[in-house]
Amino acid sequence: MVFEYFFEDQKIIDGPKLLESVNVMCANLPDLIIDYPNAKLYAHEILQKAVGFKIISKEEADKYADHIENLES
Asked: For the segment 43-59, what is each residue's pLDDT rounded down to a tens digit?
């Protein structure tokens, strides 16, 4: 919803701010996994959306995805 509504439709969030939020999400993921068992799945979905909306490149998303998969559950 953030990508479609706030970024694309309403233009409330710009690309750099959305990129910052993706970076923060990945940085905080180890803590999120403790409380939210599906956090890895959601993170992958966010990365796919970020690539689709050209916030990050496919290569960057792949690096994040590798990092996410290496996190201990």
From this structure: 999 999 999 999 999 99
Q: So where are the chain's domains? A: 2-70
Distance in angstroms (rounded) separating the CA atoms of residues 13 and 60: 21
- Is 6 in contact with 12 (CB distance < 8 Å)? yes
Position 26: which residue type? C
Alpha-carbon distance 21 to 26, whole Å? 9
Give phi and psi for 51, each to the nearest 5. -65, -45
12's CB contacts (< 8 A; 6+ apart) are: 6
- Quote the pTM value: 0.86
